[in-house]
Amino acid sequence: MNKKSKVCYLAIIIFVLYAILSGTIIPITGQEMGYCILNYYILFPILSFLCGLLLSSEEPQHKWYYILFIAIVGILMPLPVFHSIWWGMALFGTIPSCIGLIIGNLAKKLKQKL
Question: What does the pLDDT look like over 33-50, one tens digit per residue?
Fold first, then answer.
């Protein structure tokens, strides 16, 4: 693992801790929809996309471990707040991370050709 991958994994872990702590310590009663939209539908996909772009310069096997990591994080992130596993959340993280990896790989190949 190089410095980029460590930064990306650390950023995801810090975001997950923020989402869990903001949902458990601060009462979100009556504001669950806003909490979900902000954390699960906006911030998590954007962060996974940006980290996918950053990790596209990694070795091939490390890139695909990131997608598995994002899927597991997405599934387990709602557990402490809502006390349930949400299988669909895996898609909200893995699709943007795959798109980020693909765009990063294409950009890297175009840069190598030029």
Answer: 899 999 999 999 999 999
Query: Mean pLDDT across the chain, nearest whole number?
Result: 90
pLDDT at 26: 82
Q: What is this structure's pTM?
A: 0.89
Structural contact between residues 55 and 101, judged by C-beta atoms closer than 8 angstroms:
yes
Q: How far is the C-alpha of 27 from the C-alpha of 13, rounded, in Å?
A: 22
Closest CA to 16 of 72, 95, 63: 72
The per-residue DSSP string of 35-101 comes to HHIIIIIIIHHHHHHHHHHHHTTS-HHHHHHHHHHHHHHHHHTTHHHHSS--TTHHHHHHHHHHHHH
| 17's tokens | 């801790």
The Cα 105–Cα 109 span in angstroms is 6
